[in-house]
Amino acid sequence: MRIKTSCFRFQEYVIEVEVLLGNARKWTVQRRYTQFSELSKHLEKFGVELGLPPKKLIGNKKEQFLIQRKEALQKFLDVICSHSLFYSSSVVVEFLGVLPETSTALHEWILLSVRGKSQWILSEKRANCGWRAGKTFYELRCGRSLLTLSALRYGPDRFGTVDAINEALDFIRSLEYPYVSECVASWADEKGILAVRPAFGHGTLRDHIYKSNWRDEFFVKYCVERSVCSLEAIDVRFICRQVLEALSLFCALSIPFLDVHSGNISISDCGCEMIDVEQVLAGQPSFHRPYMLKASWVNTIEDMMVFAFGEFLFELLTGFFSFPLNSINEGLALAPTIFQPILKSIFAPETRSLPTLIELISSDLFVDIPVAKMNRREIRMPASVKKLLDRLCENICKRLRSDRAQQNRIQREEKIRQLLLSEGEKLRRKQIVKCQQMELSKSTNLEEGSAAVR
């Protein structure tokens, strides 16, 4: 980061942004202190201290002050970029200029997409209702019925033409599975995927756990300071068994539904229902991907489903969004004893291989939990849809392996750099140089002595 004085005499901070994984790229953005302050106010609703330096009115143009503020703002950005929920949010993405378009462009896309659908009236926009940049929610009116529209931009794993994706959407919508939420309509265009479903009056399972209003901003709804509603062990078992039943179907059909978390599950009279299944076709990374990159034993689509299920189970038991992979024992200790073996098999597998979905279903925790089955004995999938789903799964697995290898290389290089810059390494090199100089001096003295004797 460097400081630049604009023509209006105020200070701007030039931020150098770099994406290291995938298509690596660099760019710069210029931001004023007031923009840093606005960003901090939004993110601090989550209840995390970010360390933004305070505003100063007098002496704020002195060189020493500017240097200190620049260092403090750099630390502020480092904190944000180390938290996946923060750097994935729309406010941070816009602040750093990660995406070429703004929220205004996203809004215009929605308006154009529903313009020809006269049966729906676009109502209120729910800005920042979710955690992901590039996804937005609206309330729709259809007569007296209240519906929810969700729209998601395409991501790096996307595969297939718009027509092929629409065919796959029709197939997913036709499944009519007990544990998949009803989708009134879904369609794809050149920019992304849109889906309309009945509004959930009481929100998602996560809203139930946090006792929050689904219409509020994400960082307000799930603030770390909120009290969490604890679930009984039997309720957790029933919910997880139904989720496993849905995941086993998705795995059999090669539908890579990896966003398994309580924010994607609603509670109905019949049990749990998975939300936003159709939006896997957008090819956006899942909520759990940053943690999957660290877990070298996660490689296949089924592995990813099992890992995401483990994160979901841990969230139901503790209220935390993700399992602490850097402190396995502490994470396990937070969960009730009966759930610890299954969590350990997922987050610290002894054989470096994960249990399958069938093995999880057959475990003592879930084997005796009754579930509803599909009415149909077989599902006919068009060959074109199967090809699209298979290629989508290949893209997800290939990019995970590539990014993991790239991340490991970056971490190795960083460790070497830190080692070379450490005080111990500097002292060791000084001692080596000193020894070499002493040996050189001794050899020089010997040569001079032998020359004098001759």
TrEMBL record:
Source domain of life: Eukaryota
Protein name: PX domain-containing protein
Residues annotated as domain PX: 1-103
One of the GO BP terms on file: early endosome to late endosome transport
A Pfam family the protein falls into: PX
Subcellular location: Cytoplasm
InterPro entries attached to this UniProt entry: Kinase-like_dom_sf (IPR011009), PX_dom (IPR001683), PX_dom_sf (IPR036871), SortingNexin/PXDomain-PKLike (IPR051837)
GO cellular component, one term: early endosome
SUPFAM superfamilies named among the record's database cross-references: Protein kinase-like (PK-like) (SSF56112), PX domain (SSF64268)
Major localization listed first in the record, in broad terms: cytoplasm
Keyword annotations: Cytoplasm
Keyword Ion transport included in the entry's annotation: no
Annotated transmembrane regions: none
